[in-house]
Amino acid sequence: MKTKITLLVLMLLASITTISQNACSTYYPFKEGAKFQITSFDKKGKKESVVDYEIVSIKNNVATINTKISDDKGKEVSTASYEMTCDGDGISIDFKSLMNPEMLKQYKDMEVEMTGTNIELPNNLSVGQNLKDAQLNMAINMGGIKMNMSIDMVDRKVNAKESVTTAAGTFDCFALSYNTEMKIGIKQSFEIKEWISEGVGAVKSETYNKGGKLLGYSELTSITK
């Protein structure tokens, strides 16, 4: 169960949005009513979960995105929402709002403080470009017992331009990579590879352990602009 929760967190981080294009942002722009679906698989290609996204409102360059997470049988597991801001040069996503709601439920009766830096993606991607790191820190007080949790996205960079095919179609993409370091009692490190297409967003992502072995992947399986 802990492994599945960890992979779900990584999947949400790697496929945070998949939206149609407008003048605000090249890769993650806003369009109210857009819907898209990301399906995650284990390393052998067996479906594990599905995340459905919908942009429900846009106000003052801030989009609210609702998500519904379902298991491999189609049963709803949880729902959540997060915000994404566009400033004309790219997008910024509130890292705190991407925390897995199933994990937050475990701490609902405790004092929880979250701080961090947003995930940023500029409009002018190019091969060889380095992107800003992002971070989430969570301090939990359990009746006097304190616990800290952290998630760091580091070494974010643009590696290549590649064509990727999923159930939703074939897309010309920028291939990105970054390392995710999660510390929940013990430290875990993962490498994420992600493919982003202009006017579409996240098309595919793959998660590897520190030894380079594939743990699972996610793909865009449908999109309605």
Compact description:
The chain has helices at residues 2-14, 101-105; strands at residues 35-42, 47-59, 62-71, 76-86, 90-93, 111-117, 119-122, 134-142, 145-166, 169-184, 186-197, 201-209, 214-224. The chain is mainly beta and 225 residues long.
How would you explain this protein's 3D organization?
The chain is built from two helices and 13 strands. The protein has helices at 2-14, 101-105, and strands spanning 35-42, 47-59, 62-71, 76-86, 90-93, 111-117, 119-122, 134-142, 145-166, 169-184, 186-197, 201-209, 214-224. It has one domain: YmcC-like fold, CATH 2.40.360.20. It has a 13-stranded antiparallel beta sheet, covered by helices on one side. By secondary structure, the chain is mainly β.
Helical percentage: under 10%
Arithmetic mean pLDDT: 84
Q: Indicate the overall shape.
A: globular
Order of helices and strands: HEEEEEHEEEEEEEE
Q: What is the SS-derived class?
A: mainly beta
Q: Would you identify the regions where 5 or more consecutive residues have pLDDT less than 50?
A: 17-21
State the domain count: 1
- CATH topology title: YmcC-like fold
List keywords for this structure.
DUF3108 domain-containing protein; 8% helix; YmcC-like fold; signal; mainly beta; single chain; DUF3108-like; 13-stranded antiparallel sheet
